[in-house]
Amino acid sequence: MTIKIYSPNEFLTLEPPSNLYLVNPIVPLGGIVFIYGKSGVGKSPLSWALADAVCQGGSFLGMPVSGQSPVLYVDVDTRWWTIQDRWKQAGYTPSFDIAVGDAFDCLAGSWDYSDARHKFKERQAAKGYKLVIISTLAKVHSFSFSDPNAPALVYSRWQEVFGEECAIVFIHHDKKSVASEGEAGEDSLYHTRRESFSGNQQWLDHCTVAVHLIRRGSDYKFTLEQVKDQGSKKVDALKLDLNDNGVGVSIEAEATEKDNWLI
């Protein structure tokens, strides 16, 4: 990253980039996005749908997608044959590339010479990914989640590999004690929104956008709530359904655009 110094007049006349988002407003170009929720709530189907939307263009849950961009999905949390079987049973073919294998440590002293980093750099040079999704955060570093120094180090390691124009999404888990929307009242949920993930608050403070997924009393219904935004734009809480095939997600049938979208 470079530093540029401007006079006040020069700064005020700078032209901002014509496009600031891959998905407006939850995936900024070059941003760090933190998606967290309970195990089984729908993080994987949501992230697959996000990856497909960025590859194909159009929209993602009503949010505009900027063009068509290559995406890499990195899954070192689930055995590859489990993912493959789930996709085959659903009749689903993804639009994105997928990297699978064993967990690794991007904070290890040997990271710069590791097979994983080499393959990521090589692939990025060939494909120019604009979005990389990591499943899951716990499987790509060895630091304690309570260590306040870990977030900035982890985020910077991935940005170094894929470049400052590539958005990176990290998938993470709630604390096991967090209640679902069907198990607690609104007052209780309010306190879970920024504090329910496993780890130090710095994981949220150092990311660009954070999204929390909360189950709504059913294995097939959940709410997407943006708990941190980059600036003036923010998506309101989205009530979502997991599709029957267990792969895709959609806005709840009873919900209207007015209920679900706010700028």
Question: Helix amount, in percent?
Answer: 25-40%
User: Biggest sheet, strands in spatial order?
Assistant: 7-6-8-9-3-10-11-12-13
The third-level CATH topology is Rossmann fold
Q: Measured on Cα atoms, how large is the radius of gyration?
A: 18 Å
Helix/strand class: alpha/beta
Q: How many H/I helices?
A: 8
- The helix/strand order is HEEEHEEEHEHEHEHHEEEEH
Q: What's the story with the biggest beta sheet?
A: 9 strands, mixed
Low-confidence stretches: 184-195, 256-263
Q: CATH homologous superfamily name?
A: P-loop containing nucleotide triphosphate hydrolases
Distance between the termini: 30 Å
Characterize the structure shown.
The chain has 263 residues and is α/β, with parallel strands linked by helices. It has one domain (27-260): P-loop containing nucleotide triphosphate hydrolases (Rossmann fold). The protein has eight helices and 13 strands. The chain has helices at 8-12, 43-56, 80-90, 115-127, 150-162, 186-192, 202-205, 257-260, and strands at residues 21-23, 27-28, 32-37, 58-60, 63-65, 71-75, 97-100, 131-135, 167-173, 209-218, 221-228, 238-242, 249-251. A nine-stranded mixed beta sheet has the order 7-6-8-9-3-10-11-12-13, with helices on both faces. Strands 1-2 form a two-stranded antiparallel sheet. Strands 4-5 form a two-stranded antiparallel ribbon. A hairpin with a 3-residue loop joins strand 1 (21-23) and strand 2. The longest helix has 14 residues, at 43-56. It is globular and about 55 Å long. It starts with 7 loop residues before the first helix and ends with a helix. 32% of the residues are buried. Mean pLDDT is 87; it is low at 184-195 and 256-263.
